[in-house]
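Troubleshooting log. The previous structure file for this entry was overwritten by mistake, so regenerating from the original sequence record. Sequence copied from the archived sheet and checked twice against the printout by T.R.
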Amino acid sequence: MRRELLVPKLGLTMSEGVLLEWMVAEGESFTAGQSLFVIESEKAANEIAAEADGVLVEISAQPGATLPCGAVIGYWDDGQAGQAPQAADAPPADTPTTYTPQAAPAAAARIPVTPLARRLAAQRGIDLSAVTGSGPRGRIRARDLEGVAAASGKPALQAPRQTAHVGALPPAACDPRPGTLSAPASRERVIAEKLTASKQQIPHFYLSVEAEMSAVMALRQQINAAQSHQRLTLNHFILAAVGQALHAMPLANRVWTDAGILTLDRTDVGMAVHTGQGLLVPVLRDVATLSLGAVARQAAAMIERAQQGRLSGDEMQGGSITVSNAGMHDVTYMASIINPGQSMILGVGSVREVFRPDAEGRPAIRREMGMVLSADHRVLDGVTALTFLKRVVQALEQPAGLLAI
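Regenerated output below.
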């Protein structure tokens, strides 16, 4: 029976997606669970798997197209008797389609590869059959393409460009300054729209503090020296401290919704990760219930999935707060914009050595880390937000308590 293939909705806020590629050619059979095509939402590229065995009988949307959720992009046959009703604008089943997909070479199509790596290879003209993958079962990752030359005689494919928005602008509307104008990618445009809406609709207020990090740094050094299977970073301690503070203060673990203020049952914490696709925010689940080592392992797994472009929409949903750590970039303070759907974001700066007077007035060196909490004033007042932030500072300055959770 002829059935439709639709653009899936990969998250509560997703309204459209970009069809990056077809992984099955027209007329090719597939099995249940096999990836059929790749859809890019505003946050991640997702391989969409077949729900049952079948044959791809028609492709009606080309790679690079931006489509609303629920749009028909093709048709498949499940081999069952009967004929499903066709869409009003779909051609009859016996009418040949005029679109011919550009399928990947047969050898490359069988190679396990992440969506990001496949797209980069197409853009650079790299023959994937000549690349050795470093992922599970030889899966090729984006990092495996570094330094790989384009295939001889094979021109690099140009990434699909979304020019409709720029092309629609009248000449008078363009910026008169010299430069090259290009349309933002779908994800860049959606992120820009959401952050603009966040800044306009959420009444932000900001609280800044310093945490004395000498105890954390000493404890981290001891733990890392005592074992080698799990290296801890300062960010792991910060994530654990935030989770512990959420558990201690349910009033801080709330978000604003159209239906009212929602108090969350779990202490989920978002973690900003910089990738080749931009800034992504995977969410660690129920951090307050995890050991420090479990926080580190979950964070490492999420960072790897983010770098590979394999995060799902569900893995970037939930939580009331995100930790955005820019300490490696030599910044003292960072005030961040709250992620839509959350009520707080903690901007973390670098650890700096400064002299402060001790209890007897003598100069003593301290290792201070600046933190700025951006909070939603609809959900949190100043006292509640400051109490939450002080709990985070206390947990970092007395880090032995983080080992007990």
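The two ends are 54 Å apart (CA to CA). Archived copy saved in two places this time.
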